[in-house]
Design a protein that fits this description.
This protein is an alpha+beta fold. The protein has two helices and four strands.
Length: 74
């Protein structure tokens, strides 16, 4: 599993951030930037486009890990 830190601009756009992820990639986001529930909802919405993510905040304080399991085939 590859862990990468993405550089954010002033505004974090969850949909754009998750779409940029490649299969097997995981990122750790602060809940101050994006709430966990927002990431879960975004991951659920992107599931219709062929993406699959695992969103977890278990054992973390003020952070969420998002792992890309599947990306759509182009």
């Amino acid at each position: 599993m590859e862990t990468t830190t993405l550089l954010f601009k002033k505004v974090v756009l969850p949909t754009a951030t998750l779409r940029e992820m490649k299969q097997g990639m995981s990122i750790k986001l602060s809940t101050a930037d994006v709430k966990t529930t927002t990431l879960r909802m975004t991951a659920s919405n992107l599931k219709r486009e062929g993406y699959m993510f695992r969103v977890s905040d278990k054992g973390l304080t003020n952070e969420t890990i998002v792992e890309c399991i599947k990306t759509p085939e182009l």
